[in-house]
Fold these 2 entries.
Entry 1:
Amino acid sequence: MNATATMLKTATAPQTAPDADPAGPQPLPAPATLHAEYPLSPALAAQINARRASVKRILSGDDPRLLVAVGPCSAHDPRAVMEYAERLARLSDELAGQIVPVMRVYVEKPRTTVGWKGLAYDPDLDGSGDIARGLALSRALMRDVAECGLPVATELLQPMLAPYLEDLLSWVAIGARTTESQLHRELASGLDAAVGFKNATSGGVQVAVDAMGAAAHPHRHFAMDAAGRPVMAQTSGNPHTHLVLRGGSGAPNYRAEHVQAAAAALESAGQNPRLMVDCSHANACKDHRRQSEVMLDVLAQREAGNLNLAALMLESFLHEGKQPLVPGALRHGVSITDGCIGWDTTERLLKTAAERLA
Ligand SMILES: O=C[C@H](O)[C@H](O)COP(=O)(O)O
Ligand SMILES: C=C(OP(=O)(O)O)C(=O)O
């Protein structure tokens, strides 16, 4: 039984400390405590390093395969996420000649205003906010997905979460709402994994180009160490960053003219022109069914010779669409945040991409 299933089996009782004042601050385990509880074996650490290198080779143009960040908008149900991971792992082996999937295991969700903020924040989906249990579940789930043979992708949103999870990550997103944030550029500068910076929710690409430049530099910044103590961190800079075009202000930016303009902005800034197109979000006008047309358009651009299109993102789960968060009445395998394409559509799209890229 994987760690997540064990966690779920044993974690049904409330996990808050008996004497904790629910209104007051409550202690969290230090990163080192969770690492000890859910350690990374040397073999898995080596596999993650190899996966990170594979992602970087695609983004540097040294590997002609297509990188695809694919999976649910949010990981609200670890059992369903593992069911999805097992399917994706099988498909990944079948398409390995042309496609390198990295699986979205998003445990923090940025909200436009308010809403459920992710497994790490509220694992019981009821507003109880058991962050301690959410952190443990998040680490256990990411490790189980990694042990499934899949590179793990996530958005890092709360910088304090990074020391709990970063050793498990093969690709990291900085989201549209935080690409302009200096804290997230500092965070990215210290990561070993490649980092994709989303364009702004307005559609503006320059903030992401600036973020890539900032993240490439070393930074000295406030951070937390493995023991949970505040420290002065010194990073060496991360040269493995790239732009993610996700549309903005209700308008897509995945078409050839947008991609060419973005590549020009990147090249004039001396940045890597290879980029990822997020087929969801504003590129799909928040309609999950439009992800297919976005992906097929991008594939056509690649076939026309634009190899700067090195990567794609798909929001995909077991079943298509989304559902309201009604605890106790949730349908299995359906997103509770953004709408997703279902597994059958995902499999068909990835197989189509592999055939066209062969
Ligand atoms: O990917 C998820 C959403 O784009 C993001 O969390 C914003 O969702 P919201 O506008 O419903 O808050
Ligand atoms: C929140 C996400 O995207 P964005 O930052 O582009 O809204 C996401 O990819 O889940």
Entry 2:
Amino acid sequence: MTMKGYPVERIIVALDYPDAEGAERLLRRLEGIPCYMKVGMELFYAAGPQFVLRLKEAGYKVFLDLKMHDIPNTVKGGSASVTRLGVDMFNVHAAGGRAMMEAAREGVELALSGRPGADKPMLIGVTHLTSTSRQTLNDEIGIAGPVEDAVVRYAELAKAAGLDGVVASPLEVTRIKERCGDAFATVTPGIRPAGAALGDQSRVMTPREAFAQGTDYIVVGRPVTGAADPREALESIVASITE
Ligand SMILES: O=c1ccn([C@@H]2O[C@H](COP(=O)(O)O)[C@@H](O)[C@H]2O)c(=O)[nH]1
């Protein structure tokens, strides 16, 4: 299954479930669709590294979305551990600063040293969460100006630290690509098919609009996992992009 220039591998399905059984039910519904799978803190804290290995054994690409944010030495160790696990993509908070992101990069190199041929995971910086509105940024967090400016600043910092890309909303993709280059990847949650409930998301676009902005990956959770027929929901997202 391919989309014009955007294979379905660029759709990352968020497996936000409280246990492995829930995620397994979804995997059965989506059997044969080669989308990327995202394991976030809810599933990882419940089902652990074993579930990541199970996805890898089934042939999926895996984004481990744990958003590390700690002192550089700790993040270096965490990055080495998830690299040894064999994930294809993982992330750290850009708010941790340049030294922390560089330490994450070192952790990847450490885990790969002595393992020639092992795949290097994409290391991605989290900018401002897609649930963050301008009002939250300005009035609660205390950062002035549009969210986009703050996101682009984090993206530039992530690039300077040697990261491969950032998590941002599709609304910021054009400016990130302008400032950081097209090869610097954007991974964009905050995806809502037309008419879908926003839930707690604030900065959103449809799947089609997001790819039209030039994003590399979209992340979709509840519009698929919360649908009565998740397979039909995912196929309809693919169709909305290719039509
Ligand atoms: O800024 C961010 C970073 C991560 N996420 C994650 O993406 C999915 C989105 O799920 P939906 O159900 O489609 O809203 C979820 O796992 C978040 O943890 C994000 O939304 N925004």
